[in-house]
Amino acid sequence: MSREAVIESLAAHYDDGTYLNDLARRVAYRTESQVPSSRQHLYFYLQEEIGPTLERMGYDVQIIENPVPDGGPFLVGRRIEDAALPTVLTYGHGDVVRGLEPEWHEGLDPWTLKIDGEKIYGRGVADNKGQHSINMAALAAVIEARGSLGFNSIFMIETSEEIGSPGIKEFCAQYKDLIAADLLIASDGPRLTPARPTIYLGARGAMNIDFDLRLRAGGHHSGNWGGLLANPGMILAHALSTIVDRNGKVLVRDLMPESIPNSVRAALADCEIDPGEDGPSIDVDWGEPGLTPVERVFAWNTFEILAFRTGNPDNPVNAVPPRASAHCQIRYTVDRDPQTFVPAIRRHLDAHGFEDIKVAEAEGRSMWGATRMDPDHPWVQWAAASVERTMGAKPALLPNIGGSLPNDVFADILGMPTIWVPHSYAGCSQHAPNEHGMAPILREGLLIMGGLFWDMGEGPRPS
């Protein structure tokens, strides 16, 4: 068997409906980690679906309880062919966000796979069941063709990613020897554009920050007291306007990188953001001036107001409100230490006369740190060459994605290079009603991963 034969077999795996049948079974599991009553389905998914599939591929499978009580279980499958061979860790998550059944289009159900033209609907098709199903199928195809992988493979599935991956850092530290590997090859998130295969090497981190201003115990009639009492909503709005100007530039420069590394800028030079048919139009004059849109998302930090509240927005009353609050978020690259963010904002507010506004990192918002691998790293160049060989075109190479995921546990705790090959696109309605994948992207994903895993066993590869 050859590389070409493996790729042809994976094309047939999609075309004859086998991949979609497998995915339909997996979508049917209501693995909503955000819904406590769905916790049992996290176990069922691992015990009944993923575990047996990996065992048929020659993996030794363990299902391990989460070290923290609010986290779901982990699955680790190990296929160790030779201790002298390189070991690849492949990660995915089996949990999904809430189904939101009433909000889907007529005729669609989050737990039933539905094909409509090139769109494949179902909760988890894009995030992440469709993606780790591709990687499992590609590994299986190489095993069937060669009789072995030619490398050692560890497959890890968590079930708490959609609630911030509680326990994953503790799990990876505790079971470091069980999942130790030379390289991570995983799939999550969207391509840069639907038509262009993409590789990314890390993720921006995210820190959520709460602002709160409480001036008095209760509201007071706006006719009698308006003009006499300070309005906390107006004060907080003015305070936030000193952090970000009217065009989206962040004015607290201690929150921003000092510069973009040359290797990052070079990697992004041939990349463009395509919102897709259903995506929003880009506001080209918003954000950091002097940067391209792709640099603003993948190489810079942002400050966003996610929610702002004062008074009672759902039922306004004629009263000067006593309190205002805002929930904000900083997405950041590896170029800034997130522990400096709250102190920098505190200094800024004090310097502008807003000493009464409280600012603190939001509690109960488990998030992940920033990671980035150099685009010139040998493993990156190896992976990019493999994808180009399969697809006949250079993939987009992103030093990190704009969003966040638990890549820091692999890069920092486990200390391995990280290669992510996404099989979705930005318009997939991830986390929303009508989540879907695109048939051409899913099919291409099978071919790309088949080529990658074949090349890993065939060589040559970085030492």
CATH topology-level name of the largest domain: Aminopeptidase
Quantity of strands, as a count: 17
Helical proportion?
A: 25-40%
**What portion of the residues fall into strands of 2 or more residues?**
15-25%
CATH-derived architecture of the largest domain: 3-Layer(aba) Sandwich
For the report, how would you describe the main beta sheet?
Answer: 6 strands, mixed
What value does the Rg take, in angstroms?
24 Å
Work out the count of structural domains.
2
Account of the protein in words:
The chain has 463 residues and is an alpha/beta fold. The protein contains 13 helices and 17 strands. A 6-stranded mixed beta sheet has the order 1-2-6-3-7-16, sandwiched between helices. A 4-stranded antiparallel beta sheet has the order 11-13-9-14, with helices on one face. A hairpin with a 2-residue loop joins strand 4 and strand 5 (119-121). Helix 1 (3-15) packs across helix 4. The mean pLDDT is 96.
Features of this protein?
463 residues, alpha/beta, Aminopeptidase, Alpha-Beta Plaits, 2 domains, six-stranded mixed β-sheet, globular
Summary of the model, kept short:
With 463 residues, the chain is of the alpha/beta class. The chain contains 13 helices and 17 strands. The longest helix has 20 residues, at 439-458.
Task: List strands and helices in order, with pairings.
Blueprint: H1 3-15, H2 18-27, H3 39-56, E1 60-64, E2 74-79, E3 87-93, E4 114-116, E5 119-121, H4 129-146, E6 152-158, H5 168-174, E7 183-186, E8 198-200, E9 205-214, E10 220-221, H6 222-225, H7 232-241, H8 262-268, H9 293-298, E11 302-310, E12 319-320, E13 323-332, H10 341-351, E14 358-361, H11 378-391, E15 396-398, H12 407-413, E16 418-420, E17 436-438, H13 439-458
